[in-house]
Amino acid sequence: MSGFLWKATARNVNRALREINAFEWEGDYRVEARSRLKELLEEGMDEELEQYLGRAKHERIGEGDAEDYRNGSYLRHLLTEIGDLILRIRRTRKGFISKVLEAYKRRSRSVDQLIMACFVLGMSTRKVSTALLSLLGEKVSASTVSEVAKRLDGAVRRYHRRKLEGGYRFLFFDGVVLKQKGAAKVQKKNILCAYGITWEGKKEMIDFLLATSESQNAWEGFLRDLYERGLEGKLCELITTDGGNGLRNALEVVYPRIPRQHCWAHKTRNVLDKVRQMDQEKVKKDLQRISHAKNRQAATQAYWSFCQKYRKAYPGAVKSLESEIDDLLSFYQVKLSTKERQGLGAKDLQRAQMALWRKIRTTNLIERAFREVKRRTRPMGVFVNRASMERILYAVFFHYNSKGQEVPSFLFTQNA
Questions:
Q1: Residues 214-232: tens digit of each pLDDT
Q2: What predicted TM-score, i.e. pTM, was given to this entire model?
Q3: What is the DSSP-derived secondary structure letter of residue 176?
Q4: Which terminus, N or C, of the chain has the lesser number of Cβ atoms within 10 Å?
């Protein structure tokens, strides 16, 4: 059964659990299976103890026997795939430890693998407990899930150190703020994010970094690390950013030759902040006439109309738009690839081109990925520490990157 669980995919973990329930444990077989497993484990431990002592239970001690003696027994719970077992554990005066039981610890290894799978596939600690209740016949506490999740630390380190491929057509960089508990008060943590779309259209959260700020030094350190690991950007057509000065200056140092696109979502918010609320909807629609135009020429005409229309009433809004207009229109230079154009008529070509531009004119792809992070952490309020923040971010992004793919077994090993 555990082999089946290792192959659980990001899309169907809930269905997998239902199938296992229906297939494996119909009728009263679970009760019988629990009873038989209890017998096997206790028999194995008794045989192991006899070998250790060198004599059977009622056999007198002889010359050369181990200098240890039986000392009663105690009861211990063991959580397995078929529910909770109450085992009678034999003791000795010198504290003999059974290798049979040590292999199982408090939970069988396959239960830990299942807990880890649920965590990686995007379930909160409470949802893991609920999801596994019907399968295991025993509630798994949130603290147990957290304990198992700590094994992700090794996988997180490998994720941050892995070699990167350079085949990204588009790169996106943005900073997101999350809350972390501090010694005296809640602290805000900046998460620097790198996201990419390959030439085959695959979307991926490439990496992230917990930073104290979004300064040029922080961004430059993050970008240089990505570059040295293989993200040289030689095939990249466009980099879309949130427009912060720290990131902009860092890109000038690390990726100076790649065209840059200022995120329209960020710029729209900046412009609307300088407009009275009663006029914001109207101004927003006029901004969209620029960002959603059918080509750069139409966008430029819409831009000049916007400036003429609002320069007197909202000079600050117009100035904000003017300062970034070249980078705001960069995405119009990106054209469909030869492969993307194959077999398309004139109307379909225009629709496909507009769809491509829609993907690359904002950093919304990063913001969407963080919606799941915030959904996962909403019951927690804030992260307990940096390690827990890294674990949750990695688990969510691994799930996000692995949609439709098999979850690799290294995540569920004892050393992961």
A1: 999 999 999 999 999 999 9
A2: 0.69
A3: E
A4: N
